Predict the structure.
Amino acid sequence: MVCHYLVKGRVQGVGFRWFVHREAEAIGGLRGWVKNTDDGHVEVVAAGNAEQLAELSAALHKGSRGSRVDAVMEHELAESEAASLGPFQIEGAW
């Protein structure tokens, strides 16, 4: 299963991508990435089983300390999207 998430709110400049990466590592077995968007949101693509993705979704809705999550747009992608995904990582970080 592959899902795309767009997280809106105060989610840039507050360590949100690092939080997502830690949560993905804690869940274990997820592949994908997290990155900031040009319009102030955070985008996540993750592949895993339904239980893993539900756990990640719950973490995204909760947010990190210092962040404020206003909305999480979520939709499932084609299973073929998983082929290009490696270990979960932060994109655009130094």
User: Anything to note?
Assistant: The first helix runs from residue 16 to 27. The mean pLDDT is 96. Strands lie at 2-10, 31-36, 42-47, 68-77, 89-90. The longest strand covers residues 68-77.
